[in-house]
Amino acid sequence: MHRNRTRHSMEQQFVELIQEPSGEFENFHRMSLTDFNYLLSKVLPLISKQDTHLREAIPAKIRLAVTLRFLATGDSFKSLHYLFKISSQLISKIVVDVCKALNDVLKDEIKMPVNEQQWLEVENGFKNNFPHAVGVIDGKHIIIQCPDNSGSEYFNYKKTFSIVLLALVDCNYKLMYANIGSQGRISDGGVFKKSSLWQKISSETLNLPKPRSLSSADKANIPYVFLADGAFALHNNIMKPYPGTHNIGSPKRIFNTRLSRSRVVVENVFGILANRFRIFKKPIDINIDTVPIIIMTCLLLHNFLRKSNNSSHIYMPPGIVDTYDENGVLFQPGTWRQNVDKNCALRNIAQIPRRSTLSATQIRDHFAEYLFRNN
Fold this sequence. Notes:
Elements: H1 7-19, H2 24-29, H3 33-47, H4 60-73, H5 77-84, H6 88-105, H7 116-124, E1 133-144, E2 161-169, E3 175-183, H8 188-194, H9 196-202, E4 225-227, E5 238-239, H10 251-276, H11 291-307, H12 312-315, E6 323-324, E7 330-332, H13 336-339, E8 346-347, H14 358-373
Parallel strand pairs: 1-4, 4-5
Antiparallel strand pairs: 1-2, 1-8, 2-3, 6-7
Helix pairs in contact: 3-4, 3-6, 4-6, 5-6, 6-11, 10-14
Subcellular location: Nucleus
Organism: Parnassius mnemosyne (clouded apollo)
Cofactor: a divalent metal cation
């Protein structure tokens, strides 16, 4: 099989894929040919190899195609070996090299706002449902095969092995921040407390807008906040739901409903990732040092494809995300929910009760009363 592989045969295989009239290329790589060629032009200097006197080098476009196919399907290196006529050992090296190159050229795809005006632009997407919200924070366990000699370091409360992904997203399903690689035994909140995002929040160096009133009729100055679930601690800049059940129409019930409705955007982001990058369809069985590199590639590609005029409709086809009516009631669940099963590598984090400061509690109560009055 390998002896029959030539540069001409690989080029021909690529040409045949492009010429398929049924959109096979887009399905094969989760992007348009235009964006594929754009990425190829960016990574070409980083992934090209020299021919040797024994064998011609694998062309850069094939290296990129192999990597994107691996991320899109989660196929084993052995399966890709039969498809591309490249040895499993070489594919494992190609995937890592290309992912590192993609991470380098796409590194600016995930970035946080740097000034007050940019934060207000993010808040603009949330304010009709939850004023002063400037993003949604959440985390997922990414299930992996047990790393060699790791002991209980990656062993989590679900009795699986994992690393934790912490993400901050905006209302347009784009990531603004990602932290990858903390051991699975650490809780969501514990990962957050060790992150650079928390350091900037606690040191007030995020350049968030100054606290101001929620409306002209409201005199209290309320800070801008990130929305989270019960795994995080309540903070002046972090709002999470009230615990327990509450009467329909009560301020606490309305607060929880509004917060949950805004937080669904991060559920959709993780659902899209699991649906479009099938590397997440089952526990990831590759070297533990490589897992964060591959995950970051998926996150960067998510943002890149989300904003692309050529590939957004391919990566996020109509109906893939949850649809709500004008009253904010779920109208149609996203199709990603039908294609992500319980064996998915992305799993929820445990919610742990945490003691809150008085000021954070008062801010949450003020939000609840305001949302109740304006419901």
